[in-house]
Structure formats: C-alpha cells, structure tokens
Amino acid sequence: MDDIDKLLESTCRTMIRTILACLSNATKGTIYRIGLMPELKAVRITSGSRKPGSDDMDWGLPAASDYNPPGKKWEQYRDQPGRVLEAMGWCVEKQKSWTAENPQEDVRSVRKQIMGEPEDHYHMEPVLVPKDSLYGGTPERLHYPLDWQGNPIWQNSRYVVAAVIKIHFLPWTIKNGDRSTVIIRELSRSLGTELLSLYLRDTLYRARKEFARQRLQSCEILAHELRNTLVKLGFVFSAINAQIAILRESWESLLREKLPGLEWKGQVLELLSKAIESKLPELESSGTLDLGESILTEQKELAKLSLSPYQEQGWVRNKLMPKWDNLLDAAPLWDRTEIHALLERLINSLRAGMDQRPGSGGDGLPRDLIEKWARLAYVHINSGNLFQIDEIIELVESPSLPVAHKDQMARVLKSLRALVLVIPEVEEKATRILTSLRQGSGAEDVMSIMPGVSESRGDFGVALTD
Q1: Distance of alpha carbon 191 from its chain centroid, rounded?
Q2: Strand partners, 72
Q3: What is the model's pLDDT at position 315?
Q4: What is the pLDDT of residues 99-135, one digit of tens each?
Q5: What is the pLDDT of residues 162-206, one digit of tens each?
Q6: Are 99 and 175 in contact (CB under 8 A)?
Q7: Residue 160 and residue 130: Cα distance in Å, rounded?
Q8: Which fold has domain 2-208?
Q9: How far is residue 140's CA from residue 146's CA, in Å, rounded to a whole number?
Q10: 347 three-state secondary structure
Q11: Is the peptide bond preceding residue 81 cis, with omega within 30 degrees of 0?
Q12: Cα separation of 50 and 48, whole Å?
C-alpha cells in the first residue's frame, strides 16, 4: 500500500531526526523494518545523516547494502556456523541492543570480519512491540522463526521485534549502557507504538480490500448461479406450452374429424420428402446428397413437432426455404416454381387450425367454447402474456371440453402458474440484492429489499404454491 509505505518512511525520518536532535554526538541514523514471523525479513526503510555544521538532513539509501529492498530473510542473517556474525542477527534473536563502542574489538562488524577493516562507532536497538498486540492472543497458532539449531526463538518472550534502529556516533563517544543508549531505547518504544499503529492500519486496509475482493467474487458467483437458476426456471414456460400443445393437438384432431378436406403440414411435408427421395441417385452423382439428406431430416423433424404456427412458420422460412434454394441452385432437378408452391402450401397449412371452425357447433359444443379453444390452442406463453395462463386454466376446467386428462392438466397448469409468476419477482429482488452487495451496502439494506427473508435461515421467503 503506497500510502502506508509513505507514512512508514515519514515516521522513521521523524524518529531519526528526533534522536539526532537529542544526541549531539550522533551523526547518522538508519531504521530497518523486521517483517512478520517466521520470515522476519529485514529491510532498510530509510537512512538520514546530519549535514556537517547544520541541522539539515540528507535522506535516502545511497549506500549499497544487503538490507536495501527487498532485504534479507531471517535465515540469511541469523547466527550460524561458518557465517559472519551480524549485529542484526543478535538484536533480532536476543531482543537486545548491540553497541560497537570499540570497532577494533567489534566481533559483529561485518566489514572487520570480511575485510579486516574496523567499522565506525554505532548502537543498534531492537524496537519491541507486544506479541499479543501484533498477533492476537493465540500463541499456539504462531509459527516462530528458528535458530540454526532448529529451536524456536521468542517463544517465551512477551515481545516481537518490529524494527531495528541503528545510530552512528562520533569516534569514542558511545559506550554500552550510557545516556545515549538509554535515550535511544526510550525513543524506540515510541517508534514501536507508531509501527504497531501503522501495521494495524495496513492490516485493516488489506483486510477491507480482501473483503471487497471476496465480496465482489461472491457476488459474481451468486449472480452466475442465479442466472443459471433463472435459465433453468425457463423450463416452466416450456412445460406450460407443452400443456397448450395437448390442447392444440386435441383441437386439430377435432378439425380433422369434422373437416376432412383441410390440408395439414404432414401431407405437404410428405410431398416435399418424396420429391427429394425420387432424386437421391442424381443428388449423389452431383455431390449434393448431403444437402438433400439434411432437408429430409429437417422435414421429418418438423412433422413430429407440435409448436405454435408462428414458430413452425419461422422454422420453414429460416431453415427449409434457404436449404431448398441452395439445393435448387446446385442441382436443378425440380421445377423451382413447383417446389416454391409446395413450400407456400406448407406455410399456409400451419395455420389451418387457426383459421377453421367445425360446423354444426362441433358436436354440440358451445360456440363460445369453440372460439376460446381455437384461440387459446395457438397461444405461446412467454413473460409478456402471462395473464393468458388464467384463461387457459379456465378453458381446461370447462366441463364440456372434450380433452382427455384435463383435470390433471389443470393441476399441472396451476402449479406452473405459481412458479412462472414468481420468476420476475425473484429476478428483480436478486438483481437489487447483488447491486446492493456490489456497492457495499449493509445487511439492513439487503433485509429491506427482501422482507420475506428469514434471518435464521437466510433463504428466500417466497411461496411457490398456488
């Protein structure tokens, strides 16, 4: 988080400036952040040195250092046989300060151990913060860093090291335990409080960011599931229209009985199929057999379907006619005019049941029943004409309607009506809930959207019965 990093650097600069202002013999300060357990990555945050003869400061990380970002992990700077000893390792592991009052005898001077050259005079102070404040009161869940022998450090300490302060001094002006080291130790407590505050602020920010990400992800998952559910609920329309298809088949059966001269789609489709079947050898030789067989398949499928006339007319215009035109262009084996005339007859036959009425009242059936049956048998229910479901149920419940199993049909239609009527309400409320969650609204807003939601169960309080 850029803002937290800037605040951290600003806090460290303030601390270095304060220490150098309090200690006239101090020349330079550096603060290292120690990361969380068990990695304990040590990273130099900033360095500041006093300009000669002035209280002004030079800031930055000009010198090359292993502790410059990205820093060093605990396993890289802890005490270990065969590795140079570092004051950083001592301060972090022991939670104690280290003072180089005599660089010639500083056993933890990296430069002296590697190059044989003494380092300057300095004091390093660990910044301690309470373990419970940083990690909470669950010590059994903590993963402590290990020393080189595999033993956990800090296990019996109330504190953890959050940072290390390193202050450089004029030669021979610093001693272990003197006033300067006491001042640095006291000021380190203030820095510890500031670092803990920044850490908690950063943790809160990251937690809120992660919560927002998870909330958005949950919203997307929920939206996907709701869309799938609503799509699946679309079967209700298919089920209702399947019941209407039974009414339509019964109506057309009555028309066939009373008006035997009517031409139906099956008769015309049979003529079209015979036209292709009579030319199969020629189609094979011309390389158009696949197209011819595809038309045959389409026509046989249309003959079996029981769709509304409008859907079947769309089938003919969008599927059959283009394929027939392609076939006539590729293999001119038929009279184009005759084929087109058959296709027009097919389209007209699809409306035969809509345009005709049986004579003599249809075996004594009431005229108003005949008219209603003829009209509703060709209705296609969708979200725009749900009101017609009630008319269909009323028709099915008519005592004089000659349709088999109409009592069962009426029960099915009533159940489906209850489902289909609740879909728009569920969709609207689900959309409002998702919008509320995406925008970060509280639970009270969600509950106000869904007054039927059970607080104990959290489900939709919608009745799906008639």
Answers
A1: 41
A2: 42
A3: 87
A4: 999 988 889 988 888 887 878 899 999 999 888 888 8
A5: 999 999 999 999 999 999 999 999 998 888 888 878 777 777 777
A6: yes
A7: 6
A8: Beta-Lactamase (3.30.450)
A9: 16
A10: helix
A11: no
A12: 7
